Amino acid sequence: MRLQVAAGGPAALKVVAAAEFAAAPVRLCWTPPAEQPLSPLCSPWVPALQLDSGAVLFSPNAICQYLFLAGGQEPTDLTNQWLEWEATELQPVVAAALYAQLVHGKKGLEAAGQLGKLLAYIEQSLSGRGTAYLAGDTQSVADVVVWGALFPVLQDEASLSNELQALRTWFHTMTLSEACRKAADSVLMPKGLLEFKSYLQKQPPPCLAMERATSNEPEEEEASERALTEEEITAAADAWARGAAALPKPWQPQKPVLPVEGMRNVLITSALPYVNNVPHLGNIIGCVLSADTFARYCRLRNWNTLYVCGTDEYGTATETKAVEEGLTPREICDKYNAIHADIYRWFHISFDYFGRTTTPHQTTIAQDIFQRLLARGFLLQDTVEQLQCEGCQRFLADRFVEGICPFCSYEEARGDQCDKCGKLINAVELKRPQCKLCRGVPVVKPTQHLFLDLPKLEEQLEPWLEHSWSTGDWTANARYITRSWIRDGLKPRCITRDLKWGTPVPLDGFRDKVFYVWFDAPIGYLSITANYTDQWERWWKNPQQVELYNFMAKDNVPFHSVIFPCSLLGADDNYTLVNHLIATEYLNYEDGKFSKSRGVGVFGDMAKDTGIPADIWRFYLLYLRPEGQDSAFSWSDLMLKNNSELLNNLGNFINRAGMFVCKFFGGVVPDMILTADDKRLLARVTLELRQYHQLLEKVRIRDALRCILSISRHGNQYIQVNEPWKRIKGNEEDRQRAGTVTGVAVNMASLLAVMVQPYMPSVSLAIQGQLCIPPECFVLSHIFTCTLPPGHRVGTVSPLFQKLENDQIEALRKRFGGGQAKPTPPASAPVPAPASGPVVAPGDPQLIQELTEQVAKQGNQVRQLKANKAEKAEIDAEVAKLLELKKQLALAEGKSPEVLVPKGKRKK
């Protein structure tokens, strides 16, 4: 193996130390940053491990774990949990501290207020378990990775507070070890430190952590990072004592949901998904799941909330799909609308109404907006050169034309874009164009179209944008994309197309045309609401009382921030315009993109067949929600997040809290006598809860999820330090302490049940059922109070999450890595006879279920023959069939089948 590192590289320290610790058989290669890296996927500063197979690892933590594995040390759940914590929690904060220290000259420990909290977490973990190292009694990959992150900013344990004694001892031991000393000398002392500073100076400042580290203005969400005041501790204890009476009463809106005077009325839309295909995970997180999470939060806050969505069904894409499948556009819409609805239902998306755009209301409202724009002089007519197929007797929309790309000469370029070079194309520029429908050769002819006069509307758009930006929450990418559109001045936008499938244009001379989908589709929000209630105008013509949130991926921004608002401003009918435009970046799949045709990635209709519950999918997608930059789905990371954050952190805490009530106190919440430490915990949880609210009110959904996990970490540490399972066996004072710890913990679990509801509604409902949380307590407040008082009886407590195994994940990775688009036999199809030696695709749940049933049936057959004392030859034949079925089942589950032999004939 060859390990390539750059002197001063930000992650070089940990990988070099790991190689030394594990005594792994690697050849260390020091390269200047300017040299070509081993993999095009990594920068020269990122370490890379080239395996003997030729594969390259370039994730620093993965390299460290691989080196330890090669050295004979197997990973544990605890080491995995520390690696995850280091990557997601520690690294960003250390990066900010280092940037401030090396670039701005600030002291590392003063540069990022978050660092103190993370150091305290390590201190508590070391002292709470009484172990010398992070993951047990011996040095592990977790110790190396965390030390490697901390050493550049600490360098000397003398800079650590005297209160962090366990951390000081651990850091001192690690720093003096031969492996760490060699790594530090070779990577950072002294020339490497200069290289590292040079590297940092060339980088943009670390995002959120850097903003907090270098800003002189304290942010509200930093409240949970700072030291607690006596006033906060006292207030938290007082709120706790008030109990459920301190909570607002849950409010149920009328049906249909309509704006209520004096309440906060929140209208939520997510970009209407195209009806012509199945949404993949990136589509789901970018639109409907993000909007659903926020809608659920709004309802828990007692805000009067309406969430609408539906399929976007008109346009070229639908006609093209209809041609491909040999169906009419209406049949395509009916088919895929049902598919979309089923997928969102499985993902627990809580639409108040999920509709579609192919309705009479759509025609009426779209044509009314058009007529108002026409009457006010905001529409233009112009001549456009367009391809016409004389055989089909129609002008061809861009996607109905194929030909040779004028840029790269790709022979199957579409009329709007080349799939090979990616460049946008004007259909008339194609070489040797062909009609996709009849393969005839189209000719260029002039045709009249209608345009929205955006330049004339710009004088209304700009002041509205300034007002919306100053009063609402627009994501940074939404603002940037909008500014880029209006920077050089807007151009007229064509709003008609020569198609059959669309909303008809109600104007003489244009009645053979339809509206362009991006003029028409956003009006679908209004028409879908009109299908929900005939009082739809109370939502959509009521900007004085309604706040509008639009959720979408970044490619949809200009249509929602420029074109649609211009249409409504020009129509001048008191329309509700967007106050908060929330756009995500893109979610990719592993190291590439989702592709239905190539069978790459998980699509909505496939997720439920993986055997992984919907709430786990929701959690993971929201955990890596691409809020500030593109992110990537990873099977390994999904397993890690499930096993560390859900199973070992959140689920472990809630299960222990409930089990202690059942096991030690007969299922009844015990009396609680709070100590000073307990009150500090209440205050800390209260601050995390307030930060959760501050983030969600700004629609920072991913960051708010961290607050939930932080509270459960506090809870696990609280239980670990106080050890109620030991105290319950002690004297009266110890038993009382065990009761207090258990009571506080189970109330923290009750709070988490409510906080987690927007993210994992089924898990939330399960916790509510297990702890018998009263319905009147299932509401979000800014205070942490005692909702399960002494005497409250809990129900049956059981684990909330299951561990994901590596072989299960590898089978799914293989299944969705390409090829799953091939048709699979229906569930009723018989399994091929064992003698045929079928190739079994791992991970197919239908096949696994069928084989499991056949194994059980064949097992019963064998037992019956033995009970009836059948002939030996007959029994052996049936046993052989059973063993072959078990082999096929193992293959289908992604396992390596052992050589199975009948009992009594085991190999020696």
From TrEMBL:
SMART domains found in the cross-reference section: WHEP-TRS (SM00991)
Region (Disordered): 817-838
Family note: Belongs to the class-I aminoacyl-tRNA synthetase family.
Organism: Aythya fuligula
Residues forming coiled coils: 848-895
The name this protein goes by in its record: Methionine--tRNA ligase, cytoplasmic
GO biological process: methionyl-tRNA aminoacylation
Upper taxonomic lineage: Eukaryota, Metazoa, Chordata, Craniata, Vertebrata
PROSITE patterns associated with the record: AA_TRNA_LIGASE_I, GST_CTER, WHEP_TRS_1, WHEP_TRS_2
EC number: 6.1.1.10
First-listed, main subcellular location of the protein, grouped into a coarse class: cytoplasm
Pfam family, one: GST_N_5
Record InterPro entries: aa-tRNA-synth_I_CS (IPR001412), Anticodon_Met (IPR041872), Glutathione-S-Trfase_C-like (IPR010987), Glutathione-S-Trfase_C_sf (IPR036282), GST_C (IPR004046), MARS_N (IPR041598), Met-tRNA_ligase_1 (IPR023458), Met-tRNA_synth (IPR014758)
Protein's cellular compartments: Cytoplasm
GST C-terminal domain sequence ranges: 72-206
Pro residues: bias regions: 823-835
Keywords: Aminoacyl-tRNA synthetase, ATP-binding, Coiled coil, Cytoplasm, Ligase, Nucleotide-binding, Protein biosynthesis, RNA-binding
GO molecular function: ATP binding; methionine-tRNA ligase activity; RNA binding
Transmembrane regions listed in the UniProt entry: none
Catalytic activity: tRNA(Met) + L-methionine + ATP = L-methionyl-tRNA(Met) + AMP + diphosphate
SUPFAM superfamilies hit by this protein: Anticodon-binding domain of a subclass of class I aminoacyl-tRNA synthetases, GST C-terminal domain-like, Methionyl-tRNA synthetase (MetRS), Zn-domain, Nucleotidylyl transferase, S15/NS1 RNA-binding domain
All residue ranges annotated as the WHEP-TRS domain in the record: 847-903
Gene Ontology CC terms, in alphabetical order: aminoacyl-tRNA synthetase multienzyme complex; cytosol
HAMAP family: Met_tRNA_synth_type1
PANTHER family reported for this sequence: METHIONINE--TRNA LIGASE, METHIONINE--TRNA LIGASE, CYTOPLASMIC
